[in-house]
């Protein structure tokens, strides 16, 4: 697993469905550089079971992300047509109708590969034929990318393990607190709590009070 924290987020240009209905052919994260943070999250497949719970959970908290100058973007290895079809299905039927943030089609699997969340891998077998090991879909990866396009946080879950959207919000709060105050965020930090100076004295002072 590649650690992308501290590095420029891999760029891409791909088809996506935006606003729940419109297919665009050249979606890119470059449009947010200098303007917004991005929470980029990968999910395995359309028309599945854990995945719609996550997509709806991000939608339910979308205003919280927007209030933090953060754009939510979803990615899976399905096609844009598959995304569009799923977006037309109601929540009661297992669909994701009502999702308004972009859903990117990583049909060629290059985005998942470059973010190192692709579950499977390519190799050549004993007959020199291209083959795969594992299913060529994405793990549940999540990346917090700052306004400069740098990855500041990453988390990767296995397929059965759904993510906690509130944790993604907490990490944005921690990043913004650090950027605004120059203080680091200790374990279990939450918005409204104090940070600490990144020194031995700062740690000692914080631990003596908590």
UniProtKB/TrEMBL annotation:
Residues 3-177 form the Thioredoxin domain. Its main location: cytoplasm. GO terms for biological process: cell redox homeostasis; cellular response to stress; hydrogen peroxide catabolic process; response to oxidative stress. One of its GO terms (cellular component) is cytosol. The keyword GTP-binding does not apply. SUPFAM superfamilies: Thioredoxin-like (SSF52833). The keyword Hydrolase does not apply. One of its GO terms (molecular function) is thioredoxin peroxidase activity. Gene3D superfamilies: Glutaredoxin. Belongs to the peroxiredoxin family. AhpC/Prx1 subfamily. Thiol-specific peroxidase that catalyzes the reduction of hydrogen peroxide and organic hydroperoxides to water and alcohols, respectively. Plays a role in cell protection against oxidative stress by detoxifying peroxides. This is Thioredoxin peroxidase.
């Amino acid at each position: 697993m590649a650690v992308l924290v501290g590095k420029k987020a891999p760029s891409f240009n791909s088809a996506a469905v935006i606003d729940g209905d419109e297919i665009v052919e050249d979606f890119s994260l470059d449009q947010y550089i200098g303007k917004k943070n991005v929470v980029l999250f990968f999910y395995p497949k359309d028309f599945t079971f854990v995945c719609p719970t996550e997509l709806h959970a991000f939608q339910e908290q979308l205003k919280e992300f927007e209030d933090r100058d953060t754009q939510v973007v979803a990615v899976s290895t399905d096609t844009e047509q598959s995304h569009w079809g799923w977006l037309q299905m109601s929540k009661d039927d297992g669909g994701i109708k009502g999702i308004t943030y972009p859903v990117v089609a990583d049909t060629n699997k290059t985005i998942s590969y470059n973010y190192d969340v692709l579950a499977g891998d390519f190799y050549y077998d004993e007959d020199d034929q291209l083959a795969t090991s594992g299913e060529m879909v994405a793990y549940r990866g999540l990346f917090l990318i700052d306004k400069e396009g740098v990855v500041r946080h990453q988390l990767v879950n296995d397929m059965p393990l759904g993510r906690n959207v509130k944790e993604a919000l907490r990490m944005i709060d921690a990043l913004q607190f650090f950027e605004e105050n120059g203080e680091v965020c200790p374990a279990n930090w939450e918005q409204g709590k104090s940070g600490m100076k990144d020194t031995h004295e700062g740690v000692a002072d914080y631990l003596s009070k908590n």
